[in-house]
Amino acid sequence: MEQNLYERLGGEEAIAKVVDYFYNELVLKDESVHHFFKNTDMEKQLLHQTKFISYALGGPPTYKGKSMEKAHGGLNIQPSHFDTIAKHLHDALAHFGVAEGDITEALERVASLKEDIVHK
Fold first, then answer.
1. What is the pTM (predicted TM-score) of this model?
2. Which of 2, 75, 92, 108 gets the highest tally of CB atoms within 10 A of its CB?
3. Between 42-56 and 100-111, two packed helices, what is the crossing angle to 10 degrees?
4. What values do phi and psi take at 66, rounded to 5?
5. CA 102 vs CA 6, 13, 44, 73: distances in Å
6. Cα distance between residue 60 and residue 63, in whole Å
């Protein structure tokens, strides 16, 4: 049986490493987007994001957070911010040796949420 993207990436433990690198090495060091997280409990954010990305990539439905629209409401996230975050996710996945085809699949799933995340 063919593995889904979640399994190919190594499951939740591997995704947690990607999420940690994504925030601590890329997002929080990027002046164009780090302000979105200045009042965020990052430990909680890392756990939430790991569960969310795991679920989005075909893992178990353990994400119990707010809807994407509620979680990002009032933040005035613009398309350029979304694209920057998506690029950081690409780079974090690439850093851990994820195949480009799998990265593309992951980013397509994230892109499907853009309407709920970008400020209307």
1. 0.89
2. 92
3. 100
4. -70, 165
5. 10, 17, 26, 29
6. 8
